[in-house]
Structure formats: C-alpha cells, structure tokens
Request: fold
Amino acid sequence: MQAYSHILLAVDFSNNTDAVFERALTMRKALNARLSLVHIVEFVQFDFSSELTMPQELELDQELLELADKRLQQLGEKYGIADSERIVSQGNTKREILRIAEEQKVDLIVIGSHGREGIQLLLGSTANAILHGAPCDVLAVRIRN
Amino acid sequence: MQAYSHILLAVDFSNNTDAVFERALTMRKALNARLSLVHIVEFVQFDFSSELTMPQELELDQELLELADKRLQQLGEKYGIADSERIVSQGNTKREILRIAEEQKVDLIVIGSHGREGIQLLLGSTANAILHGAPCDVLAVRIRN
Reply:
C-alpha cells in the first residue's frame, strides 16, 4: 500500500500559507507523491437589483481570476511546483475543491486549519466543509494564529 | 523538516478500523515515525435519580475499560504495535484525545471519518471535534460506508 500518490494542496493566500506549503512539500518528498495546487475564486456577490452592475461584475471576476493565477504562479515558482500542477477555478470553494479532487484522482487533500471553536465551528470553516464530503483523506495542517 | 515524528491513531473499534489502521501503518513506515494507539471509553450515562445504580455504574465502567484494553491489545498484536504504544483512557473522547496528544508531544492525530453531511455535520462528529482544537495536524482517513 502506497501512502498517498497524488496530493492536492488547497491554497487560500492567507498569511500562513507558508506553513501549509512546507508541510505539503515535506509530505510530497517523504511519500514520493505528486503535488498539485488549487485555488478557488468565489463568485463576487453583487446587488442584482441594479442591472448596471453586470459588466462590472464580469470584469471583477476576470480580474480576480487573473490575480489568483499570478499569485499561485509566484507560490509555485517559490516552492518549485510545475505550471501543470497549478489549478485556478471559480465557484463555491468546497464544491470546486471536491470536484477537482475527484476529477484528478487525488487521494489526499491538504488544507490549512485554524482550529477555531464555538461560532466558527457552527458556521463551518473551509477545512471543516472539505472534511465532510471529501472523496478521499484530508490532512488539516494546524495554522498558528 | 521531518514530516511527522509521532502519530497518534484514535481507535474507535468500528467495523472500518482496519482501513484506518492500514493508513496509519503506511504513514509510520513511509515517514519513519512513532505510532501510538489511543482508545477513549466514554463515561456510562446513568439515571442519577436512583442511587441504587451507583455501584453498577462503577462496575460497568471498569468492565468497559477492561474490554477496551483487551480489544486494543488484540489490534496491537495484529498490527505489530508494542504494548507501550497503547493507551486506554476514560472521559470525553475529544478532550482526552487532545490532552493525550499534547502530553505525548504528538504531531499528527489520525482518525477515521465517515464524511457525513447535514445533521451529522451540525451535531459534530468525533473527527470534526478533534479537528477543532487540536494542538497539531489531523489526518482524517475516509471510511467507506
């Protein structure tokens, strides 16, 4: 039994991305696995009562996608991850990550977790949302606040 | 950076224990890590309106602890895990696992996860509870239902 062969790291560009990256890279090396990066751009919420906002919305979505692509590229270069292993997609974060994990036959999703409690737990963090419904194993890397 | 040096596998004796064990053993080997097992026996809930139940309660707790000890020993022998790496404790599952993880300087908790959604998510599964508040990383191993 191989530990994991394809790791998908969900990147959210928070300040603590480095710690999660280092963990994923260490796992890639130790397990001799493939590592892909994914970042999801959520759709911008606009006030649909005004039809004047529509073109702005489309423009902003496009700008956000390009920005995300650029930032993911920078991280990929910093950590030595090939262009072909970087995925930027748009939609609901949880749904898109799970869809891509399934499509790419990922067997481990790595995600940062703040380990927050109380109201955050009820509202459901991304790590929590991913954990429930994931088609594969999930490694939650503790981010020190 | 070492991937993980001390893995704590939370065992719940469900039918799918084997899959979680195999994952933890593969990780132990691949990462050259120490692997400990922990099982928590929750306190038996009795009707405290009747004081007659008190001695029964203590007896049942003791029996449950002994049974858990025996089952964990069997699993340890099956998977080649030393006596010294088996911990049976009593109390609230989440609290005890987190306490032991901290005490034993564990850097990865491995736990089975059913990936249930909806009401189960709101009620909070053990994997979910562990994820929130863990002093270290958490690997949720997907159990096929």
About this structure: Strands of chain A lie at 6-10, 34-41, 86-90, 108-113, 137-142. The interface with chain B takes residues 1-3, 22-23, 26-27, 30-31, 113, 115-117, 120-122, 124, 127-128, 131-142 of chain A (CB under 8 Å).
